[in-house]
Write a structure and sequence with these properties.
Order of helices and strands of chain B: EEEEEEEEEEE
Radius of gyration of chain B: 13 Å
Distance between the termini of chain A: 36 Å
Largest sheet of chain A: 7 strands, mixed
Distance between the termini of chain B: 41 Å
Strand content of chain B: over 45%
Number of strands of chain A: 11
Oligomer: heterodimer
Structural class of chain B: mainly beta
Strand content of chain A: over 45%
Number of helices of chain B: 0
Helix content of chain A: under 10%
Largest interface: A-B, 28 and 23 residues
Radius of gyration of chain A: 13 Å
Number of helices of chain A: 0
Number of strands of chain B: 11
Shape of chain B: globular
Helix content of chain B: under 10%
Largest sheet of chain B: 6 strands, mixed
Structural class of chain A: mainly beta
Chain lengths: 114, 112
């Protein structure tokens, strides 16, 4: 019963490096999204997807890129890491529709950019 | 723009007390509301989902209510235990695309 799986759990990057945060779900959910959590700011939406091949920007999309080639996977790419991207990143999924919006979250990726 | 407020930011109570955590929002045009629990360094665990047509949901010692007209939701925890110590977040779902707008959470500490 895996649910939403995120890898890696921890990562340290140097400024300017790129990397991909992985997210996979095994619940056949159509909706997937990425949030970042910062002290004093709460959780903010970065990008989301309503199905394979469909993505859209959230509240704080700059510096991040996403694609969704399968229902199961929704990777988040940092193009050129900056210290402002130091945060905890969470991936979430839900079935979708007006009645099936219960969201399930992964355990998070703690990213430090130095 | 939807804004979600959770006050106070932190709460400390003795074990056994019944308590209410509040969540207020500015736009009543919501689909659903979800309460989460987050333990330090961990992910978010779903506690309760209230659909917009419902007024409350119950799970064990937890009861969540929703009043869209007043822009409020409450999470009631009965007979609190030290294991209930965590941060509790409420989040609104305002469209069929399931985007969540979060409050900043209430950090609860239950003293033995």
């Amino acid at each position: 019963n895996a649910g939403v799986t995120q890898t890696p759990k921890f990562q340290v990057l140097k400024t300017g490096q790129s990397m991909t945060l992985q997210c996979a779900q095994d619940m056949n959910h159509e909706y997937m999204s990425w949030y970042r959590q910062d002290p004093g700011m709460g959780l903010r939406l970065i990008h989301y997807s309503v199905g394979a091949g469909i993505t859209d920007q959230g509240e704080v999309p700059n510096g991040y890129n996403v694609s969704r080639s399968t229902t199961e996977d929704f990777p988040l790419r940092l193009l050129s890491a900056a210290p402002s991207q130091t945060s905890v990143y969470f991936c979430a999924s839900s079935r979708g529709g007006s009645r099936n919006t219960e969201a399930f979250f992964g355990q998070g990726t703690r990213l430090t950019v130095v | 723009k939807q804004e979600v407020t959770q006050i106070p930011a932190a709460l400390s109570v003795p074990e056994g007390e019944n308590l209410v955590l509040n969540c207020s929002f500015t736009d009543s045009a919501i689909y659903n509301l979800q309460w989460f629990r987050q333990d330090p360094g961990k992910g978010l665990t779903s506690l309760l989902l209230i659909q917009s047509s419902q007024r409350e949901q119950t799970s064990g010692r937890l009861n969540a209510s929703l009043d869209k007209s007043s822009g409020r939701s409450t999470l009631y925890i009965a007979a609190s235990q030290p294991g209930d110590s965590a941060t509790y977040l409420c989040a609104l779902i305002t469209g069929a695309n399931s985007k969540l707008t979060f409050g900043k959470g209430i950090t609860l500490s239950v003293r033995p």
